[in-house]
Automatic annotation (TrEMBL):
InterPro entries documented for this protein: SsgB, SsgB_sf
Places the protein is found: Cell septum
GO biological process: division septum assembly; sporulation resulting in formation of a cellular spore
Entry keyword Cell division: yes
Family the entry assigns: Belongs to the SsgA family.
Primary location recorded for the protein, binned into one broad class: other
Protein's UniProt name: Sporulation and cell division protein SsgA
A family per Pfam: SsgA
Keywords: Cell cycle, Cell division, Septation, Sporulation
GO annotations of cellular component type: cell septum
Superkingdom assignment: Bacteria
């Protein structure tokens, strides 16, 4: 039976005018899809009012915690000493979201324990 991890965390949406908007997010991993991680954002953050889930390679998250890394429409990079930015690109535009690096590291370690 697959194991699912969910870790709620706070994030900050970085706007074009250099403002930061607090955004709740849920980091999700399931052993049924062991090579991926899923970042879930609430409906109010999306243009269409629907919950948004971005899925990408767990290896990208791991590489991005150490230095800039990109794959497809997702880029992950350190942002100062204690934060990491996940940049998500879609036809509608780009969203840059800053997370506490400690939260992403904790989530990654938990997913590695469950899914190897």
């Amino acid at each position: 039976m697959p194991i699912t991890l969910e870790q709620p965390t706070g994030a900050r949406l970085l706007t074009a005018d250099e403002q930061e908007v607090a955004v709740p997010a849920t980091l999700r991993y399931t052993s049924a899809d062991p090579q991926s991680v899923h970042f879930v954002f609430p409906p109010w953050i999306s243009l269409d009012g629907e919950e948004v889930t971005w899925s990408f390679a767990r290896a990208l998250l791991e590489k991005g915690l150490a230095g800039p890394a990109a794959l497809g429409n997702v880029q992950v990079r350190p942002y100062g000493d204690a934060r990491t930015v996940v940049e998500l690109r879609a036809a509608e535009g780009v969203a840059a979201i800053s997370f506490p690096t400690s939260a992403l590291s904790r989530f990654l370690l938990s997913s590695l324990r469950v899914g190897g």
